[in-house]
Amino acid sequence: MKNIFLLGGSGSIGLQTLHVIEQYPEDFKLVGISLGNRNHASNELILTKHQPLIVCLKDDSRLGVYQNLFPNTEFVVGDEGLLSLATYPMDGLLVNALMGSVGLLPTIKAIESKKNIALANKETLVMAGDLIRKWVNQYGVKLIPIDSEHNAILQALLGEDKDDIQSITITASGGAFRDLPREALVQVTKGDALKHPNWQMGAKITIDSATMMNKGLEVIEAHHLFELPYNQIKTVIHKESIIHGMVTFKDESTKAILGYPDMRMPILYALSYPRHLNLQIKPLDLETLGTLTFKPMDFERFPLLKLAYKVGELGGLYPTVMNAANEKAVALFLNNDITFLEIEKLVIDTVEHFKDNIESPSLEDILRCNHEIYEKVGK
Ligand SMILES: NC(=O)C1=CN([C@@H]2O[C@H](COP(=O)(O)OP(=O)(O)OC[C@H]3O[C@@H](n4cnc5c(N)ncnc54)[C@H](OP(=O)(O)O)[C@@H]3O)[C@@H](O)[C@H]2O)C=CC1
Ligand SMILES: CC(=O)[C@@H](O)[C@H](O)COP(=O)(O)O
Ligand SMILES: [Mn+2]
């Protein structure tokens, strides 16, 4: 039985993780969870069903209500509460399904408390990939990606020698506006941008997908996960999202992992790694699948992906700057404060004006930079 600590339990990945856990009562036990404020009825159902030992609430607005309903559960609150959950003194796997930079510190604290990590929160690796890799090695824990492309590449790499890799390829659906030229982006709305063609996901990543920032974050995430230079990390538009990731070896043979777009597959693999357990989802049927299509990535059409490669190469605080600017710009867009194209502009301008890079920043440098950029962008 594996103990599971789930951060971001009320979100898209969080709820799908719960769905997976519920299919395997003999294998996984939810012992800790963090929950937001979106749906209290759903939160109460989760707590009734799983009876976790510790629960982190986003704020204390309904703390008393929860404490009365679940007197045997320990409740903690806010950012400090996330750290208490991450460091809970019990072995287990921490699933980080938080959205954004808030995910970084709990990941680090969980590593220090020797928990294995199943990581959906890609922002963690974008901001502090070098430090995370160092701590993962130092504390001897596993870091397993949930992000579908990286999870697929992890599967394709199992049993292979890193020296035999020629390149890895991350596929991109193209997002909500993949068929629109740049000129048409002037008039797109929030509602349009939130319509992802293939995946049902949280709002922030859905917008990142429409700007192609998501692929940029994923390229940096892959650099840290697989310890590959950026010229060995490729992206291609694959609008069906059936192939999630590929590894090409030096002899030109290529391994690809396929499946319908359903996050329960990579989530289960991250929970059961390196085993593949039964999963009751739509079986892949090649006969009805039809044609799989591929288009070269257009870096002029998607300048944020081009920026991410540049920022990744520059290293230091640059990925944190890009990530913080993007997180703020997307929040402003979702709040109807800026237009879709202003997301790109804010992110590019912020990176261009940044002059205080540090080659090997400490965690404190990264957190301070993240906070300063987030506060400054859009002001
Ligand atoms: N959704 C997907 O299919 C995929 C997601 N990812 C990555 O996984 C992560 C989560 O994505 P997704 O599930 O879509 O996002 P959601 O927005 O659906 O869920 C995010 C979760 O984090 C919680 N949260 C956000 N901010 C805070 C905070 N400050 N304090 C405490 N809790 C907080 C939310 O609470 P609340 O309920 O209140 O909003 C929610 O539980 C992201 O990094 C994303 O890039 C990667 C691949 C696929
Ligand atoms: C499901 C998943 O892993 C997302 O990160 C997905 O990749 C988003 O789709 P895009 O390919 O459009 O970015
Ligand atoms: Mn992905």
TrEMBL record:
* Classification via Gene3D superfamilies: 1.10.1740.10, NAD(P)-binding Rossmann-like Domain
Which Pfam family is an annotated match for this chain, by its short name? DXP_reductoisom
Q: Which residues bind Mn(2+)?
A: 147, 149, 218
Q: Which reaction does it catalyse?
A: 2-C-methyl-D-erythritol 4-phosphate + NADP(+) = 1-deoxy-D-xylulose 5-phosphate + NADPH + H(+)
Instruction: Describe the location of the 1-deoxy-D-xylulose 5-phosphate reductoisomerase C-terminal domain by residue ranges.
Output: 143-226
Superkingdom field: Bacteria
A GO MF annotation of the entry reads:
1-deoxy-D-xylulose-5-phosphate reductoisomerase activity
- Every DXP reductoisomerase C-terminal domain range: 258-373
Q: Which UniProt keywords apply?
A: Isoprene biosynthesis, Magnesium, Manganese, Metal-binding, NADP, Oxidoreductase
Protein's UniProt name: 1-deoxy-D-xylulose 5-phosphate reductoisomerase
